[in-house]
Amino acid sequence: MLRVGIIGASGYTGAELTRILSAHPEVELTVATSRQNAGLPLSEVYPSLKDRINIIFEDVVMEDLVERADLFFTAVPHQTAMSIVPQLLLAGKKVVDLSADFRISDAKVYEKWYQTHTAPEYLNEAVYGLPEIYREKIVRARLTANPGCYPTSIILGTAPLLKAGIIDPDTLIADSKSGATGAGRSASVATLFCEVSEGFKAYKIGEHRHTPEIEQEISLLSGRQVVISFTPHLVPMSRGILSTIYSKMVKQLSQAEIYEIYHNFYKEEPFVRICDIGTYPATQFVKGSNFCDIGFKLDKRTGRVIIISAIDNLVKGAAGQAVQNMNLMYGFKETLGLLSLPLFP
Amino acid sequence: MLRVGIIGASGYTGAELTRILSAHPEVELTVATSRQNAGLPLSEVYPSLKDRINIIFEDVVMEDLVERADLFFTAVPHQTAMSIVPQLLLAGKKVVDLSADFRISDAKVYEKWYQTHTAPEYLNEAVYGLPEIYREKIVRARLTANPGCYPTSIILGTAPLLKAGIIDPDTLIADSKSGATGAGRSASVATLFCEVSEGFKAYKIGEHRHTPEIEQEISLLSGRQVVISFTPHLVPMSRGILSTIYSKMVKQLSQAEIYEIYHNFYKEEPFVRICDIGTYPATQFVKGSNFCDIGFKLDKRTGRVIIISAIDNLVKGAAGQAVQNMNLMYGFKETLGLLSLPLFP
Amino acid sequence: MLRVGIIGASGYTGAELTRILSAHPEVELTVATSRQNAGLPLSEVYPSLKDRINIIFEDVVMEDLVERADLFFTAVPHQTAMSIVPQLLLAGKKVVDLSADFRISDAKVYEKWYQTHTAPEYLNEAVYGLPEIYREKIVRARLTANPGCYPTSIILGTAPLLKAGIIDPDTLIADSKSGATGAGRSASVATLFCEVSEGFKAYKIGEHRHTPEIEQEISLLSGRQVVISFTPHLVPMSRGILSTIYSKMVKQLSQAEIYEIYHNFYKEEPFVRICDIGTYPATQFVKGSNFCDIGFKLDKRTGRVIIISAIDNLVKGAAGQAVQNMNLMYGFKETLGLLSLPLFP
Amino acid sequence: MLRVGIIGASGYTGAELTRILSAHPEVELTVATSRQNAGLPLSEVYPSLKDRINIIFEDVVMEDLVERADLFFTAVPHQTAMSIVPQLLLAGKKVVDLSADFRISDAKVYEKWYQTHTAPEYLNEAVYGLPEIYREKIVRARLTANPGCYPTSIILGTAPLLKAGIIDPDTLIADSKSGATGAGRSASVATLFCEVSEGFKAYKIGEHRHTPEIEQEISLLSGRQVVISFTPHLVPMSRGILSTIYSKMVKQLSQAEIYEIYHNFYKEEPFVRICDIGTYPATQFVKGSNFCDIGFKLDKRTGRVIIISAIDNLVKGAAGQAVQNMNLMYGFKETLGLLSLPLFP
Asked: According to a count of CB atoms within 10 Å of the terminal CB, is the N or C end of chain B lower?
C-alpha cells in the first residue's frame, strides 16, 4: 500500500481527494493537515465521511509528517505551496501539487500574474499534470503540477484542433462557467447561498490567473505565442465547469472530419468522451466523475467552430486528475479508483 | 382606464404580464385567454394571483373578445400570432405581439429560420419594440413586435459601440445564458427540476431562431450586413439572461472613453443602468425589474472589449418591455407600472 | 411625507425594507445606518438598488441621526436593539423594532432564552406587531415589536382554531422550514451556497429562540399556559417559510366547518389568504409579497388537523409586516406600498 | 458473474441501479427494458453512462428476456409490477421488486390505498426488504419487496425506540421532506425547474400511499396496531429525504440512554450512522451513498423525542437498498458495490 498525505485537506479539494482515495485499492491515507481544524476528526468537518474515514486533522509540522507518507498532495493556496513542496522533495517524497505555483514554467510570467516565486529552481523539473498531453513525462515525474480547473477544460477542448492546425489560435475566446465549489470553502458574503442562487455573473474578466496557464499550453500546442480572451462566470450550482470556446477555422473541414480529429486524438483516453455530432456536453453528466466530455459545432455561416467541454471541477479539474497523475507516477493502472460513474441526477 | 387583453395568458410571460399590469394605474385587464385552461380562474393556474386577480381564462373566440379590450398583448407561439394579429388590427385594435412573427422585416429571412409567413403585408408596418432604439416609431405604432429576450440583452449591450463605430461587427460573438423560464411552462423532461438543477449546458449552438433578429438589428446599427456567433446556454435558475459579448476594437479608446459612450447613449433611459468601471452586471440584481444592466471590460492584451449585459428575461426580455411599449403607444409615462425595484435576494 | 430611518440597513431585512419603502407613496427614507458599510452608497452594497436609491450608509451616531426621521425601523441584532430603542423613544420618535428584544412581555422568560434585559421598563408598552391580532393596539403604539418570521407563520396558522377552542394546544407541534435569508448576510461557512444547495437539515431542535415568542402568543390565544414542539429546518432556497402544524382536534368538525372558522377569522384581512379545501400553500406563491397563505387538512384517521402556512420570511415575516405596522401607526391605509403581487416563478 | 436484469430501467431509479451495478464486481447487467425508449442505448437517454454502459433498452418481451438474467429488479409502477413479478418467479428467477405491490402483506389494506391486487398469493412469500429488520428472511427470499423511500427513513428512525417501548406510537408524527427525484422522470408541469426551485410545499397530506406501509412496520415494531400522521413535502433539491419524527416519551430516559439504545440497535449495521448527541443528519451528507443517518433530541420541556433521519432516496431509499438485498439473497458481502462515500458538496 502506498502511503499518501494531503497537505491542506480541509478545503473542498482536500475533501474530494479523501473521498476518491477512500475507494483506491492501492493507497492508504496516512496524513491530512489543516491549520484551522488541527485536532478535529475529518468526519467532524465533513460529516459525509463519518464512520469510514478515521483520520484526524493535524497541523503542518513538516518534520513530523514527512516520514509518514510516500507521496503528498499539496492542496494549499499558491505561495504557500512553493514553501512546502521543496521540503517534501528534499525529503525524498513525490508530490502532486494542486496549487498554481509549479504550473507556469517561466518564472517571469508567473510573477506577472501572481507574486515573487521563491522556488523557481523547481519550475524546470515540474511536469504539467495533464495526462492526455504529458503522460510520458508524468510517469517519470517526482513533482507534478496539477492543472487548474478552467485550463483543463479549455486545453483538452482545443488540443486536437490546435495540433491539427485547423483553427486560428489568435481568434480563440474561452467563455467558461463554473460551479461555486471553485470559490472554496472559506466564509465570504459573495458565495453565500442567497448571493449565488438564482443568479449568474462574470468575474475577473480578462484578468483571471488561469489565463497565463491556458496561454502557455495553447501556445505550445499552436507552435507559437498566443494570447486568448478568457472570461470565467459563476453558475448557481456546486460542481462543474463548462467552457464554450470560439475559434475561426483556417481550413474548411466538414463536421465529420472534425469529429474524426477529436476521435483519433482521444481514442485511447479513458476519461475523455467525444459527443456525437449534434449533441453537446452538460456538466450534470460528468458530476462526480473524472470525465471530460467534449462536443463541437461547425458554424459555416460565421466560419467558426464552437467547442464545448465539460468537467467536474473538483474531479477532472482537481482531485481526480491528481489521483490520475499519482497512478501514472507509481505505475498503477491509470484508471484505478477513478471509474465510478457520474452521479446523475 | 385602458382595457387590455392577453391572448395566450397561461404561460410564464402571460402570468408576468398579469402581475405587472395589476400594478399599472391606467389599465384594466379585461380578457385573458388560454385554450388549455379555458374556464379556470387565473388564480387556480397561478395561485400567486389568488384574491387579487379575479379573471377567468377563456378560449380564443375572436368575435367574442375583440370588443372587450382596446389593446391586446399576443403571447402565443410564433405561427399562431400571425393568424391572430391581423384580425385584431382589422378590428381596430392596437397590438403588442410577443412572438417572433413580426420582428423580422424581411419575410425571406423569417421563412429561412421559421416557416412560411402568412401575413407578410404587416411586416413593413410593425415596429421593432425596443424603446431605447425605436421610441419615436413605437409612439405611433399600432403593431409593435416585442423583441426576443436574448436579442434585447445583446442589442442593448452593443448598440452604443456599434453606433460609435469603435468595434468590428464581424468579430462579434454573443455567449448568452438564460434561466429556465425561457423554456416556458410546458411539461417536458428536459426542463424538469432534476434535469436542470446542478447542471449547465449550451443548446441550439449556431442555430437558435433569435439569431436573425439579432443580426437584423446589429446590421442596422453597423450600417452593413453582419453575421454573428450566438450561443445560448441554460442556467439552473428561473429568471435572468446574461450575455457576454466579445468584439475586436477598431479604435484604441480608454475604458473611460468607452464608459462615456455608454453613458451618453443611455443617460436619458430609465431602464438602462451602466455599471461603474470594474464592476459588472449580475442577473440577481435585475430580477423582477425592467432594468437592463450593462458593464464592460477593455482587454488591451487581446484588443477586445468584453461587454456584459443582464436582464430579467420575463420583464425587460418580455412582459415588462411589452408594458413599456404599451405606455409609449398610449402616451402614458413610459415608466408607469414598471418602477418596482429588483427582488434581491 | 413621513421621514423614516433604518438602523441596521445592510442586512437582508434592511435591504428589503429599502425595497418596499421605495414604492411607498407617503414615505421618504432619510437615514440608513451600517457600522460596517458606513460611507458606502446603499447601491454599492446592493447593486439591485442602483440609480433608484441614492442614500449613503452612515454610522450609528444617535445625536446626528435622530432628528432626521420621524419613525425608525431598528433592524439590528437583539441586545443591540435594547440599547438603541430607548434613545429613539426618549427623543420622541416612534419605533418599529425588528429584533426580539421587545416581543416577550415577561423579562424573566426573555432572559431565560436570550440574556439580561437592560430596558425591561419598555416591555409593558411595546405592542406585539401582528396586525391580524393586535391591530387596535398597534394603531396607538409608539413602540411596536415586529414579530419573528417563524412565529408569524405559526401564530397566524393556529389563531382561528385556538380561539375557537377546537384543537388541543398541548398537542401542538410546529415543523417549520425556512429559506436561507433567515440566516442573514454574514459570511459563514454554514450558509455558503455549496453547503446549503442540494441539502436539507433541521437545526436548533427544541431550543430555537423563537419558541418563547410562539408560546407566549399561543398561550394567550388558548387562554392558558402552553408549551409546544418547534423544529426549524433550512431549505435550499432564499426566501420563504412554510410551517406544518399538527394538533389533535378536541371537537369533531368537518373540513367545511373548519374552513368556515378560518374564513370568518380572516375575511377582512388583506394579507391572509385561505386556500380552498384540498389545496395547500407553497412558498413560491407568496414570494416577494406580504401574504400569509393558510391551508389545512382534517385527518380523521388520526384525529388531527394539519395546518400549513406560508409566508415570505423577509416580507410578512419581517420588512413587509414592519411597513404594515408603520401604516397602522400613522393612519395610512394598511396596505399602502404592500400590494405588489408575488413574484412567481 | 450473476446476470441481472432491470425491468423499467429508464426512470431515475433504473438509472441509479445501472450506476450502482456498474461498480459491483460480481454482477453483470444483461437486460434493461423501457417501453418508451426501446431500441435506444441507455447512454443516449442518460449521457452520464456514455462509454461505460453499452446496453440497449429493449421492450418488455418476457419470453425473450427471462432467460438472459438470474435476478430481476422490477422498477415499474405499482399495478404493472404485480403482472410481471409472478411471471419471473414462475420462470425460476429471483426478484427484487421496487414497486409497492408486494410490500403490504394484507391485500385488503393494499386495496384500500391502491387498487385491486391481482397476485395476492405472493404476498405471504414476499419479504419486506429492509435488511436492518429482516436480514435473515431476505437471505432466503426469492421475492423481496424493496421498501418505499419515505418508509425506509421513518422505520429506521423509529425502530430502536419502538422496540425498546420507550415512546408512545399513538403520538407518532412523521414530517418528511423529499427531493424532486422522488417524483420520477415523467414530463409534468408540477416538477418543472421553475415550479420547484425557490419553493417548498407539502402534498398528499394524510393520504400518501406510503402511509399503510409505514403503519404496517411501525405496528409490528410496536406490537399493536398504530396509525400515524405522515406529511410529505417537496424540497428544491434532486436527492434526499429527511424525516422529522415526533413522539411522546413513555419512559423518562436521558439523552445518553437514548443514544445507547440507538447505538446498540445499529452497532453492526454498515449503513446506519448514529449522530453524536447535539448533531443532526443532513441530506447533503448522505447524497449518493447507501447511508441512513439518524440523530435525535430529547426535549424535556415537551416530553417528546424528536428524531431526524436522512437518506438518499434513490440509494438507501431505492436502488442501493435493492442491491443490498440482492447481496443478501446471493450470499455476497452485504456491502459489495455500496461503499462509495457520499458526494459532498
From this structure: N
